[in-house]
Amino acid sequence: MTRPTAVIATGLLLLTNPTQAKPCSDPVPGLPIVVNTWGGPFTAATDAAYLALINNDSTSALDAVEIGCSTCERRQCDTTVGFGGSPDENCETTLDAMIMDGTTMKSGAVAGLRRVRDAIAVARAVMRHTRHSLLVGDLATRFAVENGFVEEDLSTEESRARCEAWKRAGCQANYRINVTPDPSVSCGPYTPLPVDDLRLARSVADDEGAASHDTISMVVVHASGRMAAGTSTNGASFKVPGRVGDGPIVGSGSYVDGDVGGCGATGDGDIMMRFLPCYQAVENLRRGMSPTEAAEDAVRRMLRKYPKISSGIVVVNSKGEHGAAGSGWTFTYAYRGGRMNATEVVTVPPLLPEESDNVPRELI
């Protein structure tokens, strides 16, 4: 969801030691390091992953990612991760998650997962126990149950009440286009407009709505140098049932290559997956960019086509240097590494479309 700057600033004062948020930079606190999207309640995930690494030598980078993301799932971080948030048009909450190993490049993911709360753990089970990379919907749920996970309702009284209020407000806003009755004033049920009546001349701006969801995307660099990344989300609020966003898509929601670095993303997932921004950012690292430069380039590529996109990209290289970029909102990310006593949160001012030519020409 879009966050007013004042609200973010207040959260930073409560959750960090400094009297003001740190600027976006490429610091190196040392290894191991955990970096993830968003501050506020999401710092609980940072702490959980970091402490698992520090307190237990057997904790791997993949373990830490799973521990961190599952912490947010259980805590329902900002109601945009885990059960009880972001209901679809039918008032049902479904979950998306992925996890990736930066050494083997193997990944596992679930999308549209129903009735199972442990999305990131199920995603890891996909990676561990199948030759596949992505399972979806009810059959992903069946796989989860076969692997010992428990079915339970993902909706809560709060999520159902929120959905009913949305319906009473005429189902506004929603994601329907080119249907009848007019989705801007009606809940449906909808039927497609005849081809001749389609509004094919819609502007690019029509495809950009205010982000209604956040994602936890996490990158971990182990003390050994091994890396992993992962993502968990309950998607866009009031989405069309069956919609899958960028979270479980390798290269979009997150990506990692232990030779160079990793990336986590959040924002307008339907747009972001068209650009694979995390894959782009990691390849930017390979070409010699710093983490901040790599993130800014990935965001600018989206801004050139979608000037109003809400996005946030956090990038970590194999040395533990990190940086970020975003657009459309004030993005924050959290990190804890080396011997840091507490998680710190970095505020990232949004890039503007007219800043799209600032990347060094030799790196383009």
From TrEMBL:
The name under which this protein is listed is Asparaginase
Q: Which residues bind substrate?
A: R243, V244, G245, D246, T266, G267, D268, G269
Q: Where is the signal peptide?
A: 1-21
**For this protein, what is any one GO molecular function term?**
N4-(beta-N-acetylglucosaminyl)-L-asparaginase activity
Q: Which domain of life is it from?
A: Eukaryota
Assigned protein family: Belongs to the Ntn-hydrolase family.
Instruction: Provide the alphabetized UniProt keywords.
Output: Autocatalytic cleavage, Hydrolase, Protease, Signal
Under Pfam families, the record lists: Asparaginase_2
Catalytic positions?
A: T215 (nucleophile)
The feature of type site (Cleavage) is located at D214, T215
An example GO CC term for this entry is: cytoplasm
Q: What is the species listed in this Swiss-Prot or TrEMBL entry? A: Canariomyces notabilis
Q: Which Gene3D superfamilies match?
A: (Glycosyl)asparaginase (3.60.20.30)
Stored InterPro entries? Ntn_hydrolases_N, Peptidase_T2
Q: Name one GO biological process term.
A: proteolysis
